[in-house]
Amino acid sequence: MIRSVERKGSDSVKWQKYDGQDVIPLWIADTDFATDDGILDAIRARLDHGVLGYGHLTADFKQAVIGHLQQQYGWAVEPEWICPIPGVVPGLNIARAVTLAHGKSAAVTLSPTYPHLRKNPPVLNFKQQFAEAIDADGEWKIDFSALENAADDETGLLLFCHPHNPLGKAYSQEELRKFAQLAKDNDWIVCSDEIHCDLILDGSRHQPFAMLDDDTLARTITLMAPSKTYNIAGLSCAFAIIANDQLRQEFCTQCAGLNGDVNILGMVAATAAFNQGEAWRQEMIATLANNAELVYQRINAMPYLRMKPMQATFLAWIDARDLPVEHPQRFFEQAGVGLADGADYGWPGYVRLNFGCDAKLLDQALERMEQALADV
User: Fold this and answer.
1) 201-218: string of b/e by CB count within 10 Å (b at 16+)?
2) Distance between CA 211 and CA 189 in Å, rounded?
3) Cα 89 vs. chain centroid, distance in angstroms?
4) For the chain: N or C, fewer Cβ within 10 A?
5) What are phi and psi of 264, to 5 degrees?
6) How many whole angstroms separate alpha carbon 105 and alpha carbon 157?
7) DSSP one-letter string for 89-110
8) Taking the complete model, does pTM exceed 0.85, yes or no?
9) Residue-wise pLDDT tens digits, 158-203
10) Distance between CA atoms of 155 and 128, rounded to whole angstroms?
Protein backbone atom coordinates (compact mmCIF):
# COMPACT_ATOMS: atom_id res chain seq x y z
CA MET A 1 0.00 0.00 0.00
CA ILE A 2 1.29 3.46 -0.91
CA ARG A 3 1.90 5.55 2.18
CA SER A 4 3.42 8.97 2.70
CA VAL A 5 6.23 9.55 5.18
CA GLU A 6 6.95 12.70 7.18
CA ARG A 7 10.38 13.77 5.88
CA LYS A 8 10.63 17.14 7.58
CA GLY A 9 13.73 17.20 9.76
CA SER A 10 15.24 14.15 8.06
CA ASP A 11 18.30 14.00 5.79
CA SER A 12 16.09 14.62 2.74
CA VAL A 13 17.64 17.06 0.25
CA LYS A 14 14.15 17.96 -0.84
CA TRP A 15 12.96 18.96 2.62
CA GLN A 16 16.23 20.30 4.02
CA LYS A 17 16.27 23.08 1.42
CA TYR A 18 13.50 24.86 3.32
CA ASP A 19 14.29 23.63 6.80
CA GLY A 20 12.74 25.98 9.37
CA GLN A 21 10.64 27.76 6.72
CA ASP A 22 6.96 27.42 5.93
CA VAL A 23 7.59 26.30 2.36
CA ILE A 24 6.18 23.09 0.85
CA PRO A 25 9.04 21.55 -1.20
CA LEU A 26 7.90 20.32 -4.60
CA TRP A 27 11.13 20.76 -6.52
CA ILE A 28 13.71 17.94 -6.73
CA ALA A 29 12.57 14.69 -8.34
CA ASP A 30 12.03 12.28 -5.52
CA THR A 31 8.74 11.34 -3.90
CA ASP A 32 7.51 11.37 -0.31
CA PHE A 33 6.28 7.77 -0.43
CA ALA A 34 7.79 4.92 1.58
CA THR A 35 9.14 2.24 -0.70
CA ASP A 36 7.60 -1.20 -1.00
CA ASP A 37 7.79 -3.34 2.15
CA GLY A 38 9.22 -6.21 0.12
CA ILE A 39 12.19 -4.06 -0.84
CA LEU A 40 12.72 -2.95 2.74
CA ASP A 41 12.54 -6.58 3.93
CA ALA A 42 15.19 -7.58 1.36
CA ILE A 43 17.49 -4.82 2.61
CA ARG A 44 16.97 -5.91 6.23
CA ALA A 45 17.80 -9.50 5.32
CA ARG A 46 21.03 -8.38 3.65
CA LEU A 47 21.94 -6.31 6.73
CA ASP A 48 21.45 -9.38 8.91
CA HIS A 49 24.44 -10.94 7.13
CA GLY A 50 26.49 -8.47 9.13
CA VAL A 51 29.24 -7.66 6.61
CA LEU A 52 28.97 -4.78 4.15
CA GLY A 53 32.23 -5.19 2.25
CA TYR A 54 32.93 -4.98 -1.46
CA GLY A 55 30.27 -6.73 -3.50
CA HIS A 56 30.16 -8.04 -7.05
CA LEU A 57 27.46 -7.93 -9.70
CA THR A 58 25.09 -10.74 -8.73
CA ALA A 59 23.39 -13.13 -11.12
CA ASP A 60 20.14 -12.43 -9.28
CA PHE A 61 20.39 -8.73 -10.14
CA LYS A 62 21.01 -9.43 -13.83
CA GLN A 63 18.16 -11.93 -14.00
CA ALA A 64 15.83 -9.46 -12.28
CA VAL A 65 16.68 -6.79 -14.86
CA ILE A 66 16.27 -9.24 -17.74
CA GLY A 67 12.93 -10.49 -16.43
CA HIS A 68 11.61 -6.98 -15.85
CA LEU A 69 12.53 -5.75 -19.33
CA GLN A 70 11.06 -8.85 -20.96
CA GLN A 71 7.83 -8.74 -18.98
CA GLN A 72 7.18 -5.01 -19.19
CA TYR A 73 8.49 -4.16 -22.65
CA GLY A 74 9.04 -7.41 -24.50
CA TRP A 75 12.75 -6.56 -24.70
CA ALA A 76 14.99 -9.65 -24.76
CA VAL A 77 18.25 -8.46 -23.19
CA GLU A 78 21.35 -10.64 -22.92
CA PRO A 79 23.10 -10.78 -19.52
CA GLU A 80 26.36 -9.41 -20.89
CA TRP A 81 24.61 -6.26 -22.14
CA ILE A 82 24.00 -5.08 -18.56
CA CYS A 83 26.55 -2.66 -17.10
CA PRO A 84 25.85 -1.64 -13.47
CA ILE A 85 26.54 2.01 -12.65
CA PRO A 86 25.91 4.04 -9.48
CA GLY A 87 23.44 6.39 -11.19
CA VAL A 88 22.03 7.59 -14.48
CA VAL A 89 23.86 10.93 -14.24
CA PRO A 90 27.29 9.24 -14.14
CA GLY A 91 26.08 7.20 -17.10
CA LEU A 92 25.39 10.38 -19.07
CA ASN A 93 28.91 11.61 -18.39
CA ILE A 94 30.46 8.28 -19.35
CA ALA A 95 28.52 8.45 -22.64
CA ARG A 96 30.06 11.89 -23.18
CA ALA A 97 33.52 10.50 -22.42
CA VAL A 98 32.99 7.70 -24.96
CA THR A 99 32.02 10.31 -27.54
CA LEU A 100 35.21 12.25 -26.83
CA ALA A 101 37.20 9.06 -27.33
CA HIS A 102 35.57 8.83 -30.77
CA GLY A 103 36.98 12.26 -31.60
CA LYS A 104 33.74 14.20 -31.18
CA SER A 105 33.15 16.86 -28.55
CA ALA A 106 29.45 17.78 -28.64
CA ALA A 107 25.99 16.34 -28.02
CA VAL A 108 22.66 17.51 -29.35
CA THR A 109 19.52 17.30 -27.24
CA LEU A 110 16.02 18.68 -26.87
CA SER A 111 15.25 21.74 -24.73
CA PRO A 112 13.86 22.11 -22.14
CA THR A 113 15.55 19.25 -20.41
CA TYR A 114 16.69 18.54 -16.91
CA PRO A 115 19.98 20.11 -15.81
CA HIS A 116 22.22 17.06 -16.08
CA LEU A 117 21.40 16.76 -19.78
CA ARG A 118 22.19 20.44 -20.18
CA LYS A 119 25.54 20.54 -18.47
CA ASN A 120 28.53 18.29 -17.95
CA PRO A 121 31.68 18.33 -15.81
CA PRO A 122 34.12 20.99 -17.05
CA VAL A 123 36.90 18.40 -17.06
CA LEU A 124 35.26 16.79 -20.10
CA ASN A 125 35.53 19.99 -22.18
CA PHE A 126 32.31 18.95 -23.89
CA LYS A 127 29.62 21.17 -25.36
CA GLN A 128 25.84 20.81 -25.57
CA GLN A 129 23.68 21.85 -28.51
CA PHE A 130 19.93 22.35 -28.22
CA ALA A 131 16.78 22.39 -30.30
CA GLU A 132 13.59 23.74 -28.75
CA ALA A 133 10.45 21.66 -28.26
CA ILE A 134 7.39 23.11 -30.00
CA ASP A 135 4.09 23.94 -28.31
CA ALA A 136 1.62 22.74 -30.96
CA ASP A 137 -2.04 21.71 -30.83
CA GLY A 138 -2.08 21.19 -27.09
CA GLU A 139 0.95 18.89 -27.04
CA TRP A 140 4.71 19.01 -27.26
CA LYS A 141 6.14 18.38 -30.73
CA ILE A 142 9.72 17.82 -31.89
CA ASP A 143 11.24 19.83 -34.74
CA PHE A 144 13.63 17.22 -36.11
CA SER A 145 15.04 19.61 -38.70
CA ALA A 146 15.95 22.03 -35.92
CA LEU A 147 17.54 19.18 -34.00
CA GLU A 148 19.74 18.29 -36.95
CA ASN A 149 20.54 21.95 -37.65
CA ALA A 150 21.66 22.43 -34.06
CA ALA A 151 24.41 19.89 -34.65
CA ASP A 152 27.75 20.45 -36.38
CA ASP A 153 30.87 18.51 -37.33
CA GLU A 154 31.81 18.13 -33.67
CA THR A 155 28.53 16.43 -32.77
CA GLY A 156 28.85 12.74 -32.02
CA LEU A 157 26.12 12.10 -29.48
CA LEU A 158 22.34 12.35 -29.35
CA LEU A 159 21.21 12.70 -25.75
CA PHE A 160 17.55 12.48 -24.90
CA CYS A 161 15.26 11.82 -21.99
CA HIS A 162 12.58 9.18 -22.70
CA PRO A 163 10.00 9.74 -21.17
CA HIS A 164 10.90 13.39 -21.14
CA ASN A 165 11.70 15.34 -17.99
CA PRO A 166 10.33 18.00 -17.55
CA LEU A 167 7.72 17.87 -20.33
CA GLY A 168 6.07 14.68 -19.04
CA LYS A 169 6.02 13.48 -22.64
CA ALA A 170 6.10 9.85 -23.76
CA TYR A 171 7.52 9.76 -27.27
CA SER A 172 5.46 8.10 -29.97
CA GLN A 173 6.77 5.27 -32.15
CA GLU A 174 6.92 7.68 -35.08
CA GLU A 175 8.98 10.20 -33.10
CA LEU A 176 11.38 7.51 -31.90
CA ARG A 177 11.91 6.37 -35.48
CA LYS A 178 12.75 9.93 -36.52
CA PHE A 179 15.30 10.17 -33.70
CA ALA A 180 16.75 6.86 -34.87
CA GLN A 181 16.97 7.98 -38.50
CA LEU A 182 18.76 11.16 -37.48
CA ALA A 183 21.27 9.16 -35.48
CA LYS A 184 21.85 6.75 -38.36
CA ASP A 185 22.17 9.49 -40.99
CA ASN A 186 24.73 11.37 -38.88
CA ASP A 187 26.41 8.32 -37.34
CA TRP A 188 25.74 9.50 -33.78
CA ILE A 189 25.99 7.46 -30.64
CA VAL A 190 22.68 7.66 -28.77
CA CYS A 191 22.32 7.87 -25.00
CA SER A 192 18.70 7.35 -24.01
CA ASP A 193 17.91 8.28 -20.40
CA GLU A 194 14.90 6.08 -19.59
CA ILE A 195 14.87 6.46 -15.81
CA HIS A 196 11.14 7.33 -15.79
CA CYS A 197 10.14 4.45 -18.11
CA ASP A 198 8.25 2.58 -15.38
CA LEU A 199 6.06 5.60 -14.59
CA ILE A 200 3.82 5.92 -17.66
CA LEU A 201 0.57 7.43 -16.39
CA ASP A 202 -1.71 7.33 -19.43
CA GLY A 203 -1.95 3.55 -19.81
CA SER A 204 0.39 3.29 -22.79
CA ARG A 205 3.43 1.00 -22.89
CA HIS A 206 6.95 2.34 -22.84
CA GLN A 207 9.02 1.56 -25.94
CA PRO A 208 12.75 1.25 -25.20
CA PHE A 209 14.50 3.25 -27.90
CA ALA A 210 17.11 0.57 -28.58
CA MET A 211 14.38 -1.95 -29.52
CA LEU A 212 13.46 -0.12 -32.73
CA ASP A 213 15.84 -1.95 -35.11
CA ASP A 214 19.28 -3.48 -35.34
CA ASP A 215 21.05 -0.24 -36.23
CA THR A 216 19.50 1.58 -33.29
CA LEU A 217 20.36 -1.27 -30.95
CA ALA A 218 23.98 -1.16 -32.08
CA ARG A 219 24.49 2.56 -31.45
CA THR A 220 22.46 3.06 -28.26
CA ILE A 221 23.42 3.31 -24.61
CA THR A 222 20.20 2.88 -22.61
CA LEU A 223 20.24 4.16 -19.03
CA MET A 224 17.68 2.84 -16.54
CA ALA A 225 17.22 2.62 -12.77
CA PRO A 226 14.50 1.68 -10.29
CA SER A 227 15.29 4.80 -8.25
CA LYS A 228 12.47 7.12 -9.35
CA THR A 229 9.79 4.46 -9.45
CA TYR A 230 10.50 2.93 -6.04
CA ASN A 231 11.97 6.03 -4.35
CA ILE A 232 15.36 4.44 -3.70
CA ALA A 233 17.60 7.04 -5.35
CA GLY A 234 19.79 7.28 -2.23
CA LEU A 235 20.92 3.68 -2.72
CA SER A 236 22.88 4.50 -5.91
CA CYS A 237 21.99 1.67 -8.26
CA ALA A 238 21.40 2.05 -11.99
CA PHE A 239 22.46 0.22 -15.13
CA ALA A 240 23.31 0.73 -18.77
CA ILE A 241 22.09 -1.65 -21.47
CA ILE A 242 24.57 -1.77 -24.35
CA ALA A 243 24.25 -4.51 -26.97
CA ASN A 244 27.21 -3.49 -29.13
CA ASP A 245 30.29 -5.28 -27.82
CA GLN A 246 32.73 -2.55 -28.82
CA LEU A 247 30.56 0.29 -27.51
CA ARG A 248 30.02 -1.58 -24.26
CA GLN A 249 33.75 -2.15 -23.82
CA GLU A 250 34.43 1.54 -24.47
CA PHE A 251 31.77 2.46 -21.89
CA CYS A 252 33.27 0.12 -19.28
CA THR A 253 36.77 1.39 -20.02
CA GLN A 254 35.66 4.98 -19.40
CA CYS A 255 33.92 3.88 -16.20
CA ALA A 256 37.10 2.44 -14.71
CA GLY A 257 38.36 4.68 -11.94
CA LEU A 258 35.72 7.37 -12.62
CA ASN A 259 32.56 5.59 -11.54
CA GLY A 260 32.38 3.91 -8.17
CA ASP A 261 30.82 0.50 -7.71
CA VAL A 262 27.10 0.07 -7.36
CA ASN A 263 25.95 0.15 -3.74
CA ILE A 264 25.43 -3.43 -2.53
CA LEU A 265 22.18 -2.51 -0.76
CA GLY A 266 21.05 -0.70 -3.91
CA MET A 267 21.55 -3.89 -5.90
CA VAL A 268 19.54 -5.86 -3.34
CA ALA A 269 16.78 -3.25 -3.47
CA ALA A 270 16.72 -3.20 -7.27
CA THR A 271 16.54 -7.00 -7.42
CA ALA A 272 13.60 -7.06 -5.01
CA ALA A 273 11.86 -4.20 -6.82
CA PHE A 274 11.98 -5.92 -10.20
CA ASN A 275 11.15 -9.37 -8.83
CA GLN A 276 8.29 -8.55 -6.48
CA GLY A 277 7.41 -4.85 -6.68
CA GLU A 278 4.94 -4.85 -9.55
CA ALA A 279 1.76 -4.61 -7.44
CA TRP A 280 3.27 -1.69 -5.53
CA ARG A 281 4.32 -0.03 -8.80
CA GLN A 282 0.78 -0.24 -10.13
CA GLU A 283 -0.49 1.42 -6.94
CA MET A 284 2.13 4.12 -7.36
CA ILE A 285 1.05 4.76 -10.95
CA ALA A 286 -2.59 5.04 -9.87
CA THR A 287 -1.65 7.46 -7.08
CA LEU A 288 0.46 9.61 -9.38
CA ALA A 289 -2.18 9.58 -12.12
CA ASN A 290 -4.76 10.94 -9.65
CA ASN A 291 -2.33 13.62 -8.51
CA ALA A 292 -1.49 14.48 -12.12
CA GLU A 293 -5.14 15.04 -12.95
CA LEU A 294 -5.59 17.20 -9.85
CA VAL A 295 -2.60 19.35 -10.81
CA TYR A 296 -3.70 19.63 -14.44
CA GLN A 297 -7.22 20.76 -13.56
CA ARG A 298 -6.22 23.17 -10.80
CA ILE A 299 -3.26 24.77 -12.61
CA ASN A 300 -5.24 25.40 -15.78
CA ALA A 301 -8.00 27.03 -13.72
CA MET A 302 -5.50 29.50 -12.23
CA PRO A 303 -4.92 32.89 -13.83
CA TYR A 304 -1.62 33.40 -15.68
CA LEU A 305 -0.69 29.68 -15.66
CA ARG A 306 -1.16 26.87 -18.15
CA MET A 307 0.15 23.38 -18.71
CA LYS A 308 -0.36 20.28 -20.86
CA PRO A 309 -1.52 16.84 -19.75
CA MET A 310 1.26 14.61 -18.43
CA GLN A 311 1.76 11.20 -19.99
CA ALA A 312 4.57 10.13 -17.66
CA THR A 313 6.76 11.00 -14.64
CA PHE A 314 5.59 12.79 -11.48
CA LEU A 315 6.70 16.22 -12.71
CA ALA A 316 4.43 18.96 -14.03
CA TRP A 317 5.83 21.56 -16.45
CA ILE A 318 3.98 24.84 -15.92
CA ASP A 319 4.06 27.88 -18.20
CA ALA A 320 4.11 30.97 -15.96
CA ARG A 321 5.32 33.47 -18.55
CA ASP A 322 2.07 35.46 -18.38
CA LEU A 323 2.51 35.99 -14.66
CA PRO A 324 3.49 39.69 -14.26
CA VAL A 325 6.50 39.05 -12.03
CA GLU A 326 10.17 38.92 -12.89
CA HIS A 327 10.87 35.53 -11.31
CA PRO A 328 7.93 33.06 -11.05
CA GLN A 329 9.85 30.51 -8.97
CA ARG A 330 10.69 33.11 -6.32
CA PHE A 331 7.12 34.41 -6.42
CA PHE A 332 5.71 31.00 -5.50
CA GLU A 333 8.50 30.34 -3.02
CA GLN A 334 7.52 33.51 -1.18
CA ALA A 335 3.95 32.16 -1.19
CA GLY A 336 5.14 28.99 0.54
CA VAL A 337 5.57 26.59 -2.41
CA GLY A 338 9.08 25.55 -3.47
CA LEU A 339 9.10 24.73 -7.19
CA ALA A 340 12.00 24.12 -9.58
CA ASP A 341 13.03 27.09 -11.72
CA GLY A 342 12.47 26.65 -15.45
CA ALA A 343 15.65 28.60 -16.14
CA ASP A 344 17.62 25.59 -14.90
CA TYR A 345 16.01 23.58 -17.71
CA GLY A 346 16.72 26.21 -20.34
CA TRP A 347 13.27 27.84 -20.29
CA PRO A 348 12.95 30.88 -17.97
CA GLY A 349 9.39 31.73 -17.09
CA TYR A 350 8.40 28.12 -16.49
CA VAL A 351 8.34 26.18 -13.22
CA ARG A 352 8.38 22.46 -12.52
CA LEU A 353 6.16 20.98 -9.82
CA ASN A 354 6.80 17.56 -8.27
CA PHE A 355 3.42 15.99 -7.48
CA GLY A 356 4.90 12.81 -6.00
CA CYS A 357 3.53 13.54 -2.55
CA ASP A 358 0.51 13.06 -0.33
CA ALA A 359 -2.67 14.40 -1.97
CA LYS A 360 -3.47 16.55 1.07
CA LEU A 361 -0.06 18.21 0.94
CA LEU A 362 -0.45 18.72 -2.81
CA ASP A 363 -3.86 20.31 -2.26
CA GLN A 364 -2.37 22.65 0.33
CA ALA A 365 0.38 23.69 -2.08
CA LEU A 366 -2.12 24.34 -4.87
CA GLU A 367 -4.25 26.41 -2.49
CA ARG A 368 -1.22 28.55 -1.67
CA MET A 369 -0.55 29.06 -5.36
CA GLU A 370 -4.20 30.01 -5.99
CA GLN A 371 -4.17 32.51 -3.13
CA ALA A 372 -0.91 34.07 -4.29
CA LEU A 373 -2.26 34.52 -7.81
CA ALA A 374 -5.52 35.98 -6.51
CA ASP A 375 -3.50 38.76 -4.90
CA VAL A 376 -1.59 39.70 -8.06
Assistant:
1) beeeebbbbbbbeeebbb
2) 15
3) 10
4) N
5) -65, -35
6) 9
7) HHHHHHHHHHHHHTT--EEEEE
8) yes
9) 999 999 999 999 999 999 999 999 999 999 999 999 999 999 999 9
10) 9
